[in-house]
Amino acid sequence: MATDVSKTELGTADIYRLLQLLPHRYPFLLVDRIVEMDGDLSGVGIKNVTINEPYFAGHFPASPVMPGVLLIEAMAQTAGGLVVASRGEEGQGKLVYFMTIDKARFRKPVVPGDTVRIHVNLLRKRANVWKYKGEARVEGRLVAEAEISAMLTDASL
Length: 157
Hints:
Blueprint: E1 11-13, H1 15-21, E2 33-38, E3 42-48, H2 68-86, E4 94-106, E5 115-126, E6 129-138, E7 141-154
Antiparallel strand pairs: 1-2, 2-3, 3-5, 4-7, 5-6, 6-7
């Protein structure tokens, strides 16, 4: 009896590819690269947190902590990169608009020097709306999580 074994090849997106996929730019591009992309099903983004981040000047100068809402935005950007990349040519000229945040939890502060791995997994897709479960991890430890949804639309809207 022969067994059919298929191999899945994961894609990646370096910073140059992310700049093609997402409209965000400094200081609001919160993903440095995506190291795993399985279509729009799942992916892992990387955010290297440095003391030079502009929000550390006010959050909090004596004890800098990355704002939790920016961790959620990094999840959304990682998921958005997956959605646009998975559409190929059809994704060109499209934007992903953040729609909802549910079940957000912040577990541990993220500080300068941390490398955040942002894991996103598709929960469901309906028409042009995607919902993902996102987890942010530092050294394997869960630091934040949320369910997020977004809509793919023409850039002109």
